[in-house]
């Protein structure tokens, strides 16, 4: 299971880094920059309820790509419109 999580973390971070937009994962009252592999390691190992906040010039494309990669790894996200 750890290897599956590691693969998800790496792919999520790599996908996020393709975009100029800010991509933030929220769980409880914590916010993690999805482009940060370290932040993802602590986030994806401790919770399963995620809200995704995306802001920037390519936000729509980033949301679609992030939803796809999260779904690929069996993770559920709520895309938040701010």
UniProtKB/TrEMBL annotation:
Domain annotation HPr: ranges: 11-71
Pfam family, one: PTS-HPr
InterPro entries: HPr-like, HPr-like_sf
Residue stretches spanning the membrane: none
Official protein name in the record: HPr domain-containing protein
Native organism: Paenibacillus mucilaginosus 3016
């Amino acid at each position: 299971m750890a290897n599956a999580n590691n693969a998800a973390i790496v792919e999520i971070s790599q996908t996020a880094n393709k975009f100029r937009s800010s991509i933030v994962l929220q769980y409880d009252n914590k916010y993690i920059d999805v482009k940060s592999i370290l932040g993802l390691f602590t986030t994806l190992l401790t919770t399963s309820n995620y809200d995704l906040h995306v802001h920037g010039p390519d936000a729509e494309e980033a949301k679609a790509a992030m939803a796809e990669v999260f779904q690929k790894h069996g993770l559920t996200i709520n895309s938040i419109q701010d």
